[in-house]
Amino acid sequence: MGKLFFYSDQVVESPGNRRLDDILLAGVNTNNIQVGYIPSTEDKDKTFFRTKVDYYRNYGIRDILFFDLYEEFNPLKIEDLLKCDIIHLSAGNPIEFRKALKHRNMEKVLVNYVNQDGIIVGVSGGAVQLGKTINLFQMFIGDLNKNLEALQLVDFDFLPHYNRWNDGYKKEVIDYARTTGTTVYAANDGDGIIVENDKIQMIGDIVVISGHE
Q: Which phi and psi angles does 201 have, rounded to 5°?
């Protein structure tokens, strides 16, 4: 089993992000690292991609593969993706990201990658994909009729940007956890979670909302 990094956000200015980055890149020669970047949405002009290229360049990483799920999708590039040292799932709408991954049959590809000691970095909506479901975001738009499973690499749901949600929604999250028996790990921006061999390392102020009384 590889490593999973759940980032609430990932910006250069955040000292919290650097704590996660330091663990991610500890003991490696970043000049030899390749990152496979999977965008959550169409990025035809590569605006979001360039932002992340700049982010990783701060650490000396320059080899970044753009792996598109949309118009530029090329199944022949899956082999190149699997050779990457890190796969990065970008921030964005978790519901649309989930649909794109499913449409391109990428679930098994990513699960197998982790099972073969791969490292996945998920940021915000990308981190949500690593969890049990994306039901928290179905709930946010008022539609829980569809139970959308995520990659289920862990047995909990991840909620990024906890510091941004209002009290009403936070109460709904607690009710959801208790009703469904689902544990939710909620992270403020700058904070995150690392999972390796079923061990959870919490970086920063993580709120654990237990689904069990």
A: -110, 120
pLDDT digits (tens, 9 = 90+) for 59-82: 999 999 999 999 999 999 999 999
Bridge partners for 207 per DSSP: 186
pLDDT tens digit string along 133-183?
A: 999 987 765 555 566 889 999 999 999 999 999 999 999 999 999 998 999
Torsion angle, alpha carbons of 97, 48, 194, 138, to 10 = -30
Domains and CATH numbers, the chain: 3-152+189-204 (3.40.50.880)
H helix intervals, 61-189? 78-82, 94-103, 107-115, 125-128, 135-140, 167-180
Task: Please name the amino acid found at residue 202.
Answer: M
Q: Are strands 199-203 and 192-196 parallel, antiparallel or unpaired?
A: antiparallel
User: For the sheet containing 184-187, what is the strand order?
Assistant: 157-159, 184-187, 206-209
